[in-house]
Design brief:
787 residues; alpha/beta; six-stranded parallel β-sheet; 22 helices; 23% strand; globular
Length: 787
């Protein structure tokens, strides 16, 4: 019998192995297996059985099977192989990414005693060996390293290995009552513990200690009297469910919400919906009602969110409605926590899973519903490794498993808007806020006419300053948005004009005032500020750039009595820090919140009545055909934080280009007009979604070699493009960030209105190109990152 095994290496193929007769009955597709690969032993994934191997090749046998049942269900296995084919990725790397990290075996070199009797001359440590066949790691036998080869030659020891995993199931001591209390002359303390165990059943030692102090001797006596039994039980590592949450009552839906719930719940089998609701329109309530209906039908539901930062908030709200039978899956968990959550899904212990992009692989049983919240967010696109788009794969998985898929957003991606236009998605609109509040009024501040005063708060115009003062005087809250962290994104020598740049990236350093460090926001390199300019020797530097730290300082100068906080990656380095800032904001302990795009992400602050966008022009100037779309989404989302309660909201957007069509559409809150104009423009220029795209990126440490290879690849591809082929190849050219982490980067963009034509061209590329380490060639299907 033969099997195809996918190995976690960057090769877009599977390998054939023989299935030994002893393993034939056990080996099933979806299982992890141990196989030889050159001099190594590797963990692979059995994807098919009984396939025709290449002729005249002696197949090596599978060494062992690592699972008692398939790790991947047939549906997940098939989905992963489809994903690998579509994104031109290695199937083994896709399967490794779909499996929780830390559960693959580690093989530790060891030796063990044989049955051969020891000679009188055998060393003493061999005579004290624990027992025959018991392996000991070589690292534990370092004092006897010189004697081990002789012991192996003499037949007293044989080489083997100890198999372990990085992550083991977490266990805890527990106790249960197994016999009634005997009659005693006087009651003892241990009797109270016994009665408590009878009442509460199996209980962990930590739970007993919370009730009974210094209970160890009393538990010992109960064990000696055979009144209780001690056992080790497996417990779940779960960081989100430590605190109890009160259950809530579903609010009354408005007519539009109820219509959406009824329409989605009545769908039979696969159907894709685009839930387009304005900010604060109650999309989450629609999600919860639809999930409850799916659970009532015996189906499970998968909810994808774009950011790990959003997960705790959403989990809290879902727990309040649905209870604790929820799994949480994202990369911010420890390997042990992630493994426990994955196993709960796999064993059918939960029916709802919430997580970021990678939770698309959650092994839920009887999947009936997939929800992608904030589907427009670019973080659904994997930037490294297997570059898949989580939103698109949600639609694919829903189609393959006959499940309903909801893509929800206040600012849908143009890909989703296009799919709704051509009938691939059914659009459902929510145009009002269920609280009765109105959408905020948006005003443009033309910085050409309202030049900010040249003081310590030079980024805040006078109209915005007046609006903030009025808001604070009313006891309300304001959010200011600047998508740049740090104090100054430019550090310049006033003598020679040289800007301090990262040595590994073609990016200027950002000065961080609090840590007193220059930091590169791409490779995270940091260094102290030099005393003198390294180019001309001039002492001191100027910092004309802007960042959230500088704005925080300016706010404190203008409003010294206001309670000010900052929300960016520097202040929210852990989930606990983020939760603390959000809690203080919700409880009214913060008056002014300055932040990066972290402040735009689905937060619901009812006392925020003012939002100020300090510079709308930053994202508009990005060298990316999606810059207008991302600006519209980002600014509309942050504007939607204002006026979510009963108080009306206002939004001030500072810009030097108020007549830009994107900003005009934001001011008018007219998504339909923006989408129509932008889709027409994309079609004229041959950009997605009117065409399909792929980016080839060539990067390496030797710039000449990188450029040479990029031009060679482009020449070969152009030779394969016939004059009648509907394909456009742009480049190669130096990437906008031409140097990143010490590597020179060239790129080319390939577009075609026909997916088949694009795939046909890419299939002409030599697979060996993608196995090179220097220069390295990367293929990105449906790309989002053009920097």
């Amino acid at each position: 019998m033969t099997a195809e095994i996918a190995l976690p290496i960057p090769l877009r193929t599977c390998f054939h192995y023989a299935i030994p007769e002893a393993l034939d009955a056990q080996a099933q597709p979806g299982m992890r297996v141990l196989v030889p690969f050159g001099p190594r032993k590797m963990t692979g994934y059995l994807v098919r059985r009984n396939t025709e191997p290449p002729s005249q090749i002696a197949l090596q046998p599978i060494i062992g099977i690592l699972d008692s049942e398939p790790t991947f269900t047939p549906q997940i296995l098939s989905f992963c192989l489809w994903l690998a084919d579509y994104y031109c990725a290695a199937p083994g790397e896709v399967l490794r990414g779909a499996h929780p990290a830390g559960n693959d075996p580690i093989f530790i070199p060891a030796v063990r005693r044989t049955a051969q009797a020891l000679a009188p001359t055998a060393p003493e440590w061999l005579k004290n060996w624990p027992k025959e066949g018991s392996p000991i790691a070589l690292t534990a036998l370092k004092p006897y390293a010189k004697e081990i080869p002789h012991a192996i030659e003499s037949g007293w020891l044989e080489r083997c290995h100890i198999t372990k995993t990085k992550v083991e199931p977490k266990t805890a001591l527990s106790y249960r009552a197994i016999a009634p209390l005997p009659l005693r002359k006087r009651p003892l303390k241990c009797d109270e513990i016994h009665r408590w165990l009878i009442e509460h059943g199996v209980s962990q030692l930590t739970e007993i200690k919370q009730v009974f102090k210094n209970c160890a001797p009393h538990i010992k006596r109960l064990l000696e009297e055979h009144l209780i039994a001690e056992e080790e039980i497996e417990i779940e590592r779960n960081p989100f469910f430590a605190a109890k949450i009160e259950r809530d009552r579903p609010p009354q839906l408005n007519a539009a919400q109820q219509k959406a719930v009824d329409q989605i719940s009545s769908a039979q089998g696969y159907c894709g919906f685009l839930l387009h609701g304005v900010t604060g329109s109650g999309k989450t309530e629609v999600y919860l009602h639809v999930i409850e209906k799916a659970l009532a039908r015996g189906q499970s539901a998968l909810v994808l969110v774009p950011e790990i930062a959003l997960t705790p908030q959403l989990v809290r709200r879902f727990r309040a409605r649905l209870g604790d039978q929820i799994a949480v899956l994202h990369s911010g968990l420890t390997p042990g926590e992630r493994l426990d959550q994955w196993r709960r899904c796999r064993q059918g212990l939960v029916q709802v899973a919430i997580g970021a992009r990678s939770s698309i692989f959650a092994p839920l049983r009887n999947l009936g519903l997939i929800i992608v919240d904030e589907e427009h967010d670019p973080s659904f696109k994997q930037a490294e490794g297997v570059r898949y788009q989580g939103r698109d794969m949600a639609l694919v998985r829903g189609q393959r498993e006959n499940a309903v898929v909801i893509l929800g957003s206040a600012t849908p991606s143009l890909e989703s808007a296009h799919n709704a236009r051509i009938g691939k998605l059914t659009r459902i609109s929510l145009t009002e806020r269920p609280t009765g509040g109105r959408l905020p009024r948006i005003e443009m501040i033309d910085l050409r006419c309202h030049q900010p005063p040249q003081d310590r708060a030079a980024l805040l115009s006078l109209p915005l300053r007046h609006a903030i003062s009025e808001t604070l005087a009313r006891g309300e809250q304001a959010i200011l948005f600047l998508n740049r962290r740090g104090f100054s994104n430019v550090v310049i020598c006033p003598s020679c004009g040289q800007v301090l740049e990262c040595n590994s990236c073609s990016i200027s350093y950002t000065w961080h005032q609090r840590s007193q460090l220059l930091r590169c926001h791409y490779c995270d390199a940091c260094r102290p500020l030099p005393d003198h300019c390294p180019h001309c020797g001039h002492p001191g530097f100027e910092m004309p750039g802007q960042g959230t730290e500088r704005v925080e300082e300016a706010l404190s100068w203008l409003w010294p009595n206001a309670r000010i906080a900052r929300l960016d990656r520097d202040t929210a380095q852990t989930a606990r820090h983020l939760e603390d800032i959000l809690r203080r904001m919700n409880q009214g302990e913060i008056d002014l919140l300055i932040g990066t795009q972290m402040v735009t992400k689905g937060h619901d602050f009812h006392r925020v009545t003012l939002v100020g966008v300090l510079s709308a022009d930053i994202s508009l100037s990005f060298p990316d055909f999606r810059s207008s779309e991302r600006t519209f989404q980002l600014l509309t989302q942050v504007a939607g934080r204002a006026g979510r309660g009963q108080l009306p909201g206002r939004v001030f957007i500072q810009t030097y280009n108020p007549d830009h069509p994107c900003l005009q559409a934001i001011r008018d809150q007219n998504y339909a007009q923006f989408a129509q104009n932008e889709l027409q423009l994309r079609q004229l220029r041959g950009y997605p979604p009117s065409s399909y795209a792929a980016v080839l990126r060539i990067e390496g440490h030797q710039s000449d070699a990188v450029e040479k290879l990029a031009k060679e690849i482009a020449k070969r591809l152009r030779n394969h493009i016939a004059s009648t082929d509907p394909i456009i190849l742009r480049g190669p050219t130096l990437a906008p960030i031409g140097l990143l982490r010490g590597k020179t980067r060239f790129m080319m963009l390939i577009t075609s209105p026909q997916r088949s034509a694009l795939r046909k061209l890419l299939s002409t590329m030599d697979p060996a190109l993608f196995q090179r380490s220097e220069p390295h060639v990367i293929l990105d299907i449906d790309p989002y990152d053009f920097l």
